[in-house]
Design goal:
The chain contains 7 helices and 10 strands. It is an alpha+beta fold and 256 residues long. Strands 1, 2, 3, 4, 5, 6 and 7 form a 7-stranded mixed sheet that branches. A 3-stranded antiparallel sheet has the order 8-10-9.
């Protein structure tokens, strides 16, 4: 995000310091759509903010003058998930002239920061934070079971929500999620990135269920299996014994 969570990510190790706006590239920020997969559902990690009335947001941050955009995105994702080597892709820039300045949430953010710490977030900092920003959107794919979400300074909690059940998010964050979802669908086959959402070993049915969750439609098992095996990207392992031996499905893993 460009406002509250941006400060959280950049400053969570320096809570008592004044926010130094000169350390960051002006009017440029990063928002992250963190996708996870569980119980046959595609999920997104969102944050419940600690001020305002039921405010939800995407995690994000600012870009230090000393780092590249990709390095900043990787830093932000590690801060939020505790994971290294996350699959991360830049998908779109968001630069509407009114995406923050005329946002219905702008005044809530300004008053919230001022009440939280008026010395560290003085008028100059608040004007900078709530001014116009161009956002660079990234999406990340993670094994949901390995993530340990870390709350920030202005958050009550972080929560995984099914993409179809997302609440109204601050500013244009619902639009950002929709664009990230569209990019994920387009790249699922071309770049074979869906396996980043699965555990190390999986059955063909589990792969099919993941594709169905991302595309929100059903696939024929025979046609789907033929397509995936034809890509020659999977190693077949032993069978996954959960019941009758003759019905045990094969386990697969992604080729290194």
């Amino acid at each position: 995000m460009v406002l509250t969570l941006s400060i959280v990510v950049c400053m969570n190790t320096r809570i008592m310091d004044k926010f130094q706006i000169e350390n960051y590239i002006a009017q440029l920020s990063i928002d992250c759509v963190i996708f996870g997969y569980k119980d046959k559902q595609l999920k997104v990690l969102i944050s419940k903010l600690s001020f305002g009335d039921n405010l939800w947001s995407l995690p994000g941050g600012y870009i230090l003058n000393t780092e590249s955009i990709d390095d900043a995105a990787s830093r932000i994702l590690k801060d939020r998930t505790g994971l290294d080597n996350i699959y991360l892709e830049q998908f779109k820039a968001f630069g509407g002239k009114d995406r923050i300045v005329d946002s219905e949430y702008r005044d809530l953010v300004r008053s919230g920061l001022r009440k939280f710490d008026s010395e560290r977030f003085n008028d100059e900092v608040i004007d900078w934070v709530t001014g116009r920003f161009v956002c660079i959107g990234y999406y990340a794919l993670v094994d949901l079971n390995k993530v340990e979400p870390k709350i920030g300074e202005f958050e009550e909690f972080l929560k995984w929500k099914c993409i179809e059940e997302l609440p109204k998010l601050t500013h244009d964050h619902n639009e950002i999620v929709a664009s990230a979802h569209q990019a994920l669908r387009q790249n699922l086959d071309e770049k074979l990135i869906g396996f980043n959402l699965l555990p190390e070993t999986f059955t063909m049915r589990e792969v099919k269920e993941l594709y169905e969750a991302v595309h929100d439609k059903e696939f024929s098992m025979n046609n789907f299996q033929k397509k995936i095996l034809g890509l020659n990207v999977l190693d077949r392992l032993g069978k996954k014994f959960t019941g009758a031996q003759n019905r045990a499905p094969f386990l697969y893993k992604f080729k290194k």
